[in-house]
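DATA SHEET
Item: assembly model
Revision: 1
Owner: S.N.
Input lines:
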Amino acid sequence: GQQVMQIPQYQHVQEGEDFTTYCNSSTTLSNIQWYKQRPGGHPVFLIQLVKSGEVKKQKRLTFQFGEAKKNSSLHITATQTTDVGTYFCAGSVGSGSARQLTFGSGTQLTVLP
Amino acid sequence: DSGVTQTPKHLITATGQRVTLRCSPRSGDLSVYWYQQSLDQGLQFLIQYYNGEERAKGNILERFSAQQFPDLHSELNLSSLELGDSALYFCASSVSPWGGNQETQYFGPGTRLLVL
């Protein structure tokens, strides 16, 4: 079945440093979504990318979708302690009744003050 | 607040017991998903329902079952509980399982299950 791999599993950064998490799929994705789960919280939808090569920004967060629609990345510039949490990508593959959203394993970000 | 409600918030039970977790999706959402998250682990997809019908199964144990009712709320039944079943169980809902924004999943606050 479809697999969505996410690396790294853990990342510790000093406040102010940049952070990037990568997501790779074994198959071409229809779209990719990103979610954030704060410690003790539930996953919350951040953004969706649909087009090949698409880049979207949300303040210090930059999301990219690869040209082949098989990979994606989330980059955070100048991390803050409020960025702490686990970031999940979720790739959508297939069509019609076979369409399925598959979550990556997540990257747990720790920001040291 | 995502609009998805889950009850109970916490559940403590003993091995061998059976529990039922309940989820009410966002108003208008027809699809419900169940996930298991163990400590510091990712989201393990269990099962998905769409408009009352089972649509997809993940790594759901035979001891676990679920259903979605006509009013679209869903229940996850866990039986013959083992210590390893202790985890956070999330329910999520979406408008539908396909089509861009319609498949965005909105998660409930989760039910924390502790099996002693």
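QC remark: The mean pLDDT of chain A is 93.
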